[in-house]
Structure of Glycerol operon regulatory protein:
Amino acid sequence: MVNGEPVSHPTLIGSVQRALRLLEAVGAHSAGAPAKQLAREAGLPLPTTYHLLRTLTHEGYLRRENGVFVYGEAAGSIGKAGAERCRRAELGDALAIVGKRVGAAAYFAVYREGEVEVVAATEDPQRPPVEEWVDFRTTAHAHAIGQCLLAQLDEQSRKDHLARYPVQSLTPYSVRCEDDLLHRLDAVRRAQVAYEQQEYALGTVCSAIPIQVGSAAATVAISLPASDAQRLHCVTERLRRMVEATLTTLAFSISI
């Protein structure tokens, strides 16, 4: 009782607690440990230990090698998932700084496993990002992010992408055919920047610049209302100057 009121205790699941203690015991041995030793160190009965070891091995959190138990792939993925969420949060924070400094919505995207992936975008209500009214993955030809990524691909990868996602006009300003797109991509490679004005969404202009993140095609992009189109080139040059110091290291950690 506290101040005359009953104290509520959280409901604890004993089997989960025992499994966690067992995982901690395994983690104390880089070369693994046998069941009897793990039972002793975790303070568990041997039959219970065997049951938990079988379950954890079946689920991929442990694996048995030469009579000892070590962490399995699923156990490693827990830490990796948490680390990636942290990196994505850091990247989002960095993008937010970039967006505020250049006065535009900002994006980071990669081309991974044959698809355009927008990894992060700013969420500033004063500078809202483009609404994804048609899937970004299927319309790479129509937006600056996609054009910048496609320009970085080798010829075969680009052909494969366009075979899966043919060029189609989304607005009166979109490229009309694959030949027009390929000419545009040649210009993007030469200038190391992609510009598009209302090709994906009416009322919005965008630009994207390539960044070096190992072997992956990646880009940092910005968008502005079409009424601010006269600022696009100036803002893009500011973005280019900021990117290397602010985003490249974080972008690399996300893309691999």
User: Anything to note?
Assistant: The chain has nine helices and seven strands. The radius of gyration is 26 Å. The beta strands are 62-65, 68-71, 105-112, 115-121, 194-197, 204-213, 216-225. Residues 156 and 249 are 28 Å apart (CA to CA).
